[in-house]
Amino acid sequence: MSGYQQFDGRWGERAQLAWDTLAMKSTRGIPAWMSHVMDVAFQEHYVGRAPGDFARDPEGVYLAFQQAAGTCFVDQWIPRNPLTMGQHGYEASVQRTATTGAQRIVRDEIEIDSPEAVVEHLERFAWPGIRRQIDTFDEQRPTLRQRLMAQETQVQEFLGPNLLKGPYADGFQSFPRLRYGQYGYMNYFMAYALYPEVIERDFALQADLATLANAVAAEAILAGGLPKLIRLDHDMADSRGTLVDVRSLDRIWLPHFARCIRPLLEANVRLIWHCDGNLMQMVPRLIECGLGGFQGFQYEDGMDYERICRMTDRNGGPLLIIGGVSVTRTMPFGSPATVRKEMEWLVEAGPRLGLFLGLSSSLAPGAPHENVRAYIEGLAHYRQHGRRP
Asked: Which of 18, 98, 211, 320 has the CB geometry, 3.0–4.6 Å to 354, for a possible disulfide?
């Protein structure tokens, strides 16, 4: 048997709890989503490993920590990511990018120092590259489908049958994006404001390619027996609201986003959205496009968790919610008591079906270790006992 079929009849209790929750079945316990704790020393100590073991064996220590934390479901498998951050932030050796302080942004020998430079690079390099990928896509299709199945199956085999791996990699993340990561915030958003017809053309071309890629992703999920859930991950808001006027997204982004995700929706793959910042204006719009859930709520920025949990998808069904303890407020600045209180709130205010518990995002070093322990204890409690009757 290929793909996840080899695990049929072998799934452990935690993985089965994740499967049942993804299927929106009624369960006694509440499964735990991945806990991406970037404090390497804490992970080593928690699983009984020596200092320095994480650097020598990141995959092994990271997996041991997920197992010890009671994780039931992982989508983004990034065990080497914690090595990029020390106790006081990102290490000096980490290469600076367009959004993390690069002194100059140069793409294909074009210095991105103006909105016009953004347009020039799109027209001369980015768009021809997309068109070439579209023109050669059919001949790459079988290889791509097999690669997507193989990469997910390989990770699942490493994790073992008690920790479920969901699809997440690049091949499962195809939709039009704001290109601030390539061109930097200032010049990209000036181009967005000054040349909306150019930006829409970029969204349209990205969506043309994404439609093809999503059709293959759907085939890989069905053929490989993978979980029918993809978390779409692209930051489009800050603490004030969407990074651009949401009405402009209505005109030039949402139609292209909606059409490119259709192959996944037609295959009954549930799509959820990772929320950074205040994304409340986007929530009903994403639901109307077909999304079926959300993850990563910054409550202090205005994300109304209780209201979102009461919403339904566009067909009237419940949303799948990954409720996270705040990594920007509660975990670093709270106490074990406030961690427990927030977890209780997440459960009691959360949906009756389709609820996972976790952290709202990656937890940077510096959070009190007693808070992390209280969080892990809370995961165990709700996994075993569920919510109050």
From this structure: 320
| Averaged pLDDT in 10-residue chunks for the chain of 389 residues | 90 98 97 97 98 98 98 97 81 74 92 98 98 94 95 97 94 96 97 98 98 97 97 95 97 98 98 95 98 95 96 97 97 98 98 97 96 98 91
Helix (H, G, I), strand (E, B) or coil at 158: helix
Give the number of other Cβ atoms within 10 Å of residue 26's Cβ.
Answer: 9
Integer Cα distance of 254 and 355 in angstroms: 27
Phi, psi for 206 (deg, rounded to 5): -60, -40
Give dist(CA 151, CA 227) in Å, integer: 14
Check: CB of residue 210 under 8 Å from CB of residue 230: no
Q: Give CA–CA dist 104/113, Å, rounded.
A: 8
Closest by CA position to 327, among listed 292, 300, 356, 287: 300
Rounded Cα distance between 231 and 293, Å, is 9
Cβ-proximal residues to 44 (8 Å cutoff; 6+ apart), any chain: 50, 51, 52, 53, 54, 61
Query: Is residue 280 within 8 Å of 299, Cβ to Cβ?
Result: no
Q: How many Cβ atoms from other residues are within 10 Å of residue 13's Cβ?
A: 12
Q: How far apart are CA 66 and CA 73, in angstroms?
A: 9
- Coil, helix or strand for 176? coil
Q: What is the pTM of this model?
A: 0.95
Closest to 232 in 3D by CA, of 175, 191, 179: 175
